[in-house]
Amino acid sequence: MAMIFPSRRVRRTPFSEGVKAAGMTVCTVYNRMILPSVFASQEEDYRHLKTHVQVWDVSCERQVAVQGPDARKLLDMLSPRDLDKMAADQCFYMPAIDRNGGMLNDPVLVKLAEDHFWISIADSDYLQYVAGVADALGLDVRVWEPDVSPLAVQGPKADELMARVFGDAVRDIRFFRYKKLAFEGREMVVARSGYSKQGGFEIYLDGSDYGMPLWDALFKAGEDLEVRAGCPSTMERTEGGLLSYGNDMNQNNTPFEIGLGKFVNSPKDYIGKAGLMARSQPERQIRAVEIGGEIPLIDKEWPLLADGKWVGQVTTAAWSPDFQTNVSIAMVEKSHWDAGTKLEVETPDGMRPAEVKAQFWA
Ligand code: THG
């Protein structure tokens, strides 16, 4: 594996110094920014995440800030999810779609005020779409990328670590809600959220200058909790069925195909509503699929076959140490998506047996 050639175009983060010192061994690029992939090993990182507490540099979850008198008007045009139901301190997992109902991104929307939102984006250039819609509609709103970088604190000891740095108030934050809490006098959004099923928080670092002081404070406070640097774990997130834009879905997929139909409930006339409604009965859907045998790392879709005929594709796959099987996320055609259906998956190392599961493992 080659290294990434240093460049200003592949952006560092406010925590890059800490990540390097903590021993990042493999990384990827996400929203043109470095995202760590491995520290010790995939399996060691996984076990540690499920046992202790980790600090993740997920700065690459960039914010598209939307602020101004027409901020809500713009978001109502973008969101299939009913924003009238969004509380003042709430975060919403929001399908972002095009005019045909195809997924453009799957961000977390953060409501800062009635006229100020952050769209915390997955790996696609959504800012340009948002700004384009705003300008085309002549809305009085500003759309930009602020100097805000999420730092996730995930794992069973996350509450304890966060309480030591931000105070006991963090314990009362409910799932997908946030509080504005001070670090060194600087107010930051602290939400109970994050890309794992182990529980934890996301600190939306507001101002890069506070990055390394915040990183250092967390590691100092968490020494006896065995805090370590970590990153989203493919093993762990696949067990839990957390989706990854660009891997498990793209613009060809609707929210209904990827299990986000429950978030399509806006009564407003948002962009893509007609196109989306025309596709509300999906012909394929995301499924948990168990794979037998040994499998390599996955860097392209693997065909799913029934009697030699294509019936879908595996888009994420990993060994699960806890479930002692290969777990995967797949897009399966309606004819074969029932739980218990036996299939074959064509990996680069050969055919492997596969079975559609009723639900994800965790
Ligand atoms: N946190 C923040 N921004 C993000 C991500 C994040 N932006 C990019 C990417 N991740 C967006 N995708 C997801 C996918 C899943 C979840 C969050 C963001 C998630 N899903 C939960 C689930 O499916 O169980 C909860 C969904 C819900 O009930 O609302 O957490 O991780 N800031």
Explain this structure:
The model has no long low-confidence stretch (mean pLDDT 98). By secondary structure, the protein is of the alpha+beta class. The longest helix has 11 residues, at 126-136. The strands form five sheets. The protein has a six-stranded mixed beta sheet with strand order 12-13-14-11-3-15, sandwiched between helices. It has three domains: 16-62 and 147-237, Gyrase A, domain 2, CATH 3.30.1360; 63-144, Aminomethyltransferase beta-barrel domains (Alpha-Beta Plaits, 2-Layer Sandwich); 285-362, Elongation Factor Tu (Ef-tu), domain 3 (Beta Barrel), CATH 2.40.30.110. It has eight helices and 21 strands. It binds (6S)-5,6,7,8-tetrahydrofolate (THG). The site of (6S)-5,6,7,8-tetrahydrofolate has 16 residues, from loops.
Question: SSE layout and pairings?
Answer:
Elements: H1 16-21, E1 26-30, E2 33-38, H2 42-51, E3 54-57, E4 63-67, H3 71-78, E5 91-93, E6 96-97, E7 103-105, E8 108-113, E9 116-120, H4 126-136, E10 142-144, E11 148-154, H5 158-166, E12 178-183, E13 186-191, E14 200-206, H6 211-221, E15 228-230, H7 234-240, H8 273-277, E16 284-291, E17 302-306, E18 309-320, E19 325-333, E20 342-347, E21 350-356
Parallel strand pairs: 3-15
Antiparallel strand pairs: 1-2, 3-11, 4-9, 4-10, 5-8, 6-7, 8-9, 11-14, 12-13, 13-14, 16-19, 16-21, 17-18, 17-20, 18-19, 20-21
